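A common beginner's mistake is to predict each chain separately and then try to dock the pieces by hand. The better habit, illustrated here, is to supply every component at once so that their relative placement is modeled jointly.
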Amino acid sequence: MGILIIILKIIACLIALAAFVFALIQAVYWLNIDNKIMFLLYKIFNRITDRVPRDRRF
Amino acid sequence: MAEKKNFGSRKRFYNGYELARYRKWKGFKDSWVDFKEWLKEKKISGELLKADPVRAFKALTYYHWMAPYLGSGSMVDRTIDDAHGEALLIAHKYMQFLLKSNVEALIKILKSDERFGENEYSKKTVIFEQDASPILIGGFPNLQNAVEEPYFHILATANDQHAGHYFTDIIDSYGLPSDSCRNSSAICGVAIDDQLPYYGACLITSNAPCDSSVMNSSIVERRLKVPSIQGCTPMRWKDEDTREYAVAHVKEVIKFIEDCTGETFDWDAFFETVRQYNEETRIQHELWELAKSPYYPVPSVPNLLYRSFQLSFSSGLNKECAKIGREMLEICEKCVREKINVRPKTRYRTLVCGAPSSYYMHFSTWMYECWGVNTVAVLNNMSHHEFISEDDKEEALWGVAQLWEQAIMRRHLVGGYENLLEMFEEYERFNCDMIVFYDDITCKGSKSMTGMIQDIANERNIPLVWISHDLIDPRAIPRNEMRKQFNDFMFSVMNEKPLDESLLDFDDSKGW
Amino acid sequence: MRDLRYRVYFENLLEEVKNELVDKALEDGKLALGYSCYYIPEVLMNLDGCFSVRLRAPGVADTAIATYYMSEKTCMYSRSILELAIEGGYNFFSALLSTETCGMMHRSHEHFEMLDLVKEQNEKFFVSHVDAPFVTKDYAVKHYEKQLKKHVLDRLNEVYGVDVSDEALRKAIEKHNELCRIVTEIGNYRKLSNPPLTGYEFHLIELVSECCPHDLIMPYLKETLEELKTRVADKDPWYRVRVVLAGGENDDPDFTKLIEDSGAFVVADRYCFGSLPGREEIEIRDGETALNAIARHYIDTNECPRFMNPEKVHGRKQYLKKLAEDYNADGLIVQQMKFCEYWEYERMYCQQVMESDYGLPCMGIEKEYINTSTGQLRTRFQAFVEALELKKTERGEQHG
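With all components supplied together, the output reads:
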């Protein structure tokens, strides 16, 4: 009986965790966080590549 | 001047950007589909960093054309914004396929790039200049192909409207006038700025699609430092007497690749690729049949990109291309058979001609959302669509030559004026109500026919709108200017009211 | 220097496409064959009963109608040709022999078909399109020969009964070579340090040889050659520096005059409508037919930037260097028509490499078909002349 309860508690935790992760992913999706992060990274990398010394010649 | 504030359906976007604050609610079913497909797209994009994180990071910190690919998620969102129901699923599937292919191509480039260290792939890479189909690589199973140009500026600009003009500014500073085709000149800027990867066993240059493309090869060759050969094809491709010459070029390219790589052309493997290509072509023909129907569900931008990819990048090499095509065909057949209308905003069916601007690839999406103008046919998509012989060597080589001759943009712009005027036949074939002509201000092939085209359109009472753009430089003719041209036409010629006023005039000039 | 006897006459001939010599040839029942491009061998259009007229559009000041058809963002030469054609300026043509080489020029020719130009006056009028190769391999030359036969010779024979036999071609080559010898001999005077000929005068001579019936212009050219043998140059050379003029389409002698008024003697004319190439004799080798020789000759000598193979890409620059050496030029001016795709790349390329790789100072110019801002051009030329003079002074050289 005790083991059953433990198993059920573990399952409940896993479900809660899954729900939490799902909610997090949903938040990322709905708030467009992935693209916002990408945009910031893009800006950062653009700044870096603007300043990289290169062998510019014809 | 007060900054234009977004309202209505633009409210979810940051002012001046195509970056959304939050995603669009498309109803329970569509939003769920959108979410699932978005997860797949994230997984695909992640492969790029997973494949070789060190090289990916080095590329991101060296190549100016690499960072725009971080915007591919946003690009997908923009191109499918007008899709619902089956159209949404189709759009996602097409874009996932393209995303996957792009990621695979970029991984190939990164792994082959000797700038970041020696590797086993570089000398197994045959580089094809844009518009030259890489179908011949099918006969060299131990080699891989790389397509030059699109990844360094066209597709980069599709992701980030400001990616391309970085390179055109460079070549302009060396004295090239800015009236030259921006597409061809941008790759020169990439070459001059030492932003071409160091890779390749050899380079196959091309004289397609235009005069500008002929000239940029010699500048790229100066910096690429790999042996190169001119994979030229006749201009007068309809002339039967050019066949021998065209096939001679193809044979020479095969021999050249053999000499540079030590590989031998494998006809069995090549015919297998040809069979794949023919399958892709067969599917395309069936899709065109379905496109005549008012229930054709494919949104325009994925349609355009998929076909461009199929001709210029796959040509039978990528087995998934036909697989996706078959899946899409099934969905399209279902929609047409059961009369499922997933493009309900459609008020006009349009044929789109000319080169779309890379910095506003999703212009068709906007046309649909704002005005209900549904792009059902794209003239560029009607490039080479013949079947290639699957068993006769000479005929197969002739098929390859034709594939090069009738490449995207080339088929309609060279070989005789009647090729471009086929647009009026396509207009009838696809039961269109109007024609949108993307008027690249640097494209001499189409610009030198503007009067004739307008005359014929007037004669036949076909509403025709010219949308001027500068191909990859949004500073000359920004996106809002392109929209304004279309708005003016819809108001004054078509006497229409917009479906969504908030989309008429807004600022998206700053970012993606 | 005493004025050339026929200078004014040549200038007058060039003021009209249908000049008095063209009129005379037409009265004699000859066929006027129009062309723009070096890829159409001039010799093929001068078979018996025919004469070549290289397309120019003198006097066309406004291209409103042509601009409607071809837009304002295309080469003005192409538009000017179309404008004159619409005005009826080429209604005397029996055929227009075109090549799909330069996109805009070709479209301009296609408009002759689309708009049914000339057809009203001559229902036999045709436009023929040749496919020209991009490389110089043997199979490319063979292809070119086939195209010339199919789209030039066979058409002339089918429509007008022109004799296009090997014998007829050999005869045409002989006559063509004679013209070339005379013009080349005239042109060679430019190699002298104090020549009895200016670049402008040679430009007139070369142009009339391209735009007038050969048989009728020959006597004048021969006389001019004789005149030059005894023409006394001024005591001191009039120029400050010597330049090779290269580039795309240039049928405007006033452009050459503008350069020379700025102090630069145009010693070599390496542009479309120039003599280099254009006035080399055609040699028929053993075992060759006349058409073999013509195809080979026009591929070998062709300096069009359209050729993509490295031999031609580098060869063009080497050729310019060689011309500079042969004609003792101090510098190079590369001009291009605005919107010309081929020559804007080639001009840029030359500007980048001619001095660094070949030691030849180079200036690039973008111009219009009808040049209105001559003041600006003059300033640019003068600055280049001064720069070249400075270089010469640094090298311890003297003028002339």
